[in-house]
Structure to design on (443 residues):
């Protein structure tokens, strides 16, 4: 095959025909459709990065004209993503994962040399092939298998966030050249993008934690999610993406044209899905939520289902925290004395009616989401992977770690030197503790 047009045509049409034939032979279920979408999207994103690296390091290069970006033919990229993403799910969804990976990799090793003259292999092309298998093929197969078997929910959700950010934000930024800005401008851009993107990440997290599902329509939550960002706006993910494009539109007007597309999708297809699917599954609960929360304009203060936070009333520092929470007039949140909790609490504890419970920094983060949108953004930031752990480490290091209700934090002076024997050993005066009943009445 020395005709470049024939090579490129076969590289795209053979995978497309194979995927269609496999889907026609055995109609995939919802979870398999979700696996096909996710595995193909993962391979599309990661193969684009690996091919760009391959041309830079000399693993292989492409001789092609038309439908090429940064030297990579887009038709070959799409065909490759289908072969490694969609086809294994449709052909052998239950086959052992090592066997599927081995057969798929072997076929690719056999086909790669046949791609000349479009694909010109370098001396170390096997190193590039190994990198592609490790970064693209194997994680894609794992993601597909987890989705089909409904396992590793949080890993699936995290990968979906990465895919949405990579395909929806990072890839367009690279393609449009927005990243070619002065350092100060890029710094401002990243900070401005953090606000809308944080909303989308928090919404995906809430889907996993509260709804036990993912943002993908074919892998949805099992329960109606009305907490977190969904207490402020019904479509936080679409609002997040539209907000990101508005920010990017300052640097490239083409992103402004994408905003109506996002809104049209949310107001059209997503609204249809809400009206048909959610109303059928959740009935009156969905109708009440829909009346209370707007679809596109976030509320300044949320509509939240009932929750409780337990704060030690016998600790002056903890009492100050309790009074601060009450002063913020949190929506749907009761502030109660930890002394009355049957579990013998040692940290501030947040509990929801759906059974979710969080302690320490995570509890404070959830409390913030009940106050208003500004504090909610801070709370969602604290919930990010790694941030909660680091914040908890800092809190414990400064002496605000776990303690029994009523136990005071020792002062810095008492930690540095022993108390003088001439000084009175009676109890030190401390701030007035506020009872749970008083906190409740203060609301």
């Amino acid at each position: 095959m020395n005709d470049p047009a024939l090579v490129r045509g076969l590289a795209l049409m053979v995978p497309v025909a194979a995927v269609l034939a496999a889907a026609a032979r055995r109609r995939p279920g919802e979870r398999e459709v979700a696996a096909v979408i996710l595995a193909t999207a993962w391979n599309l994103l990661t193969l684009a990065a690996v091919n760009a690296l391959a041309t830079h390091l000399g693993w292989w290069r492409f001789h092609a004209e038309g439908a090429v970006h940064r030297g990579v033919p887009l038709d070959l990229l799409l065909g490759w993503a289908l072969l490694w993403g969609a086809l294994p799910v449709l052909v052998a969804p239950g086959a052992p994962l090592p066997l599927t990976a081995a057969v798929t990799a072997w076929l690719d090793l056999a086909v790669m040399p046949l791609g000349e003259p479009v694909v010109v292999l370098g001396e170390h092309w096997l190193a590039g092939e190994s990198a592609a298998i490790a970064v693209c093929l194997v994680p894609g197969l794992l993601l597909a298998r987890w989705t089909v078997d409904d396992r590793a929910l949080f890993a699936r959700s995290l990968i979906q966030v990465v895919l949405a950010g990579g395909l929806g934000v990072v890839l367009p930024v690279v393609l449009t050249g927005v990243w070619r800005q002065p350092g100060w401008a890029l710094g401002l851009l990243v900070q401005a993008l953090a606000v809308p993107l944080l909303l989308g990440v928090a919404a995906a997290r809430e889907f996993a934690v509260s709804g036990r599902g993912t943002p993908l329509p074919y892998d949805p939550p099992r329960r109606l999610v009305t907490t977190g960002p969904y207490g402020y706006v019904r479509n936080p993910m679409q609002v997040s993406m539209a907000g990101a494009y508005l920010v990017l539109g300052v640097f490239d007007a083409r992103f402004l044209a994408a905003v109506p597309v996002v809104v049209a999708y949310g107001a059209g297809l997503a609204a249809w899905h809400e009206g048909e699917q959610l109303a059928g599954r959740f009935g009156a609960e969905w109708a009440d939520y829909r009346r209370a929360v707007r679809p596109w304009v976030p509320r300044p203060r949320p509509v939240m289902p009932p929750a409780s936070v337990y704060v030690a009333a016998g600790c002056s520092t903890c009492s100050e925290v309790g009074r601060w929470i009450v002063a913020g007039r949190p929506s749907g949140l009761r502030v109660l004395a930890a002394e009355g909790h049957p579990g013998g609490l040692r940290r501030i504890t947040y509990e929801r009616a759906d059974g979710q419970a969080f302690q320490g920094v995570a509890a404070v983060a959830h409390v913030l989401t009940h106050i208003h949108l500004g504090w909610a953004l801070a709370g969602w930031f604290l919930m990010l992977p790694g941030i909660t752990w680091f914040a908890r480490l800092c809190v414990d290091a400064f002496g605000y770690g776990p303690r029994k209700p009523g136990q005071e934090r020792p002062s810095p002076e008492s930690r540095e030197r022993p108390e003088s024997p001439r000084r009175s050993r009676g109890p030190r005066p401390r701030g007035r503790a506020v009872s749970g009943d008083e906190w409740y009445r203060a609301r």
User: Anything to note?
Assistant: Strands lie at 60-62, 68-69, 72-73, 119-121, 307-311, 333-337, 349-352, 357-359.
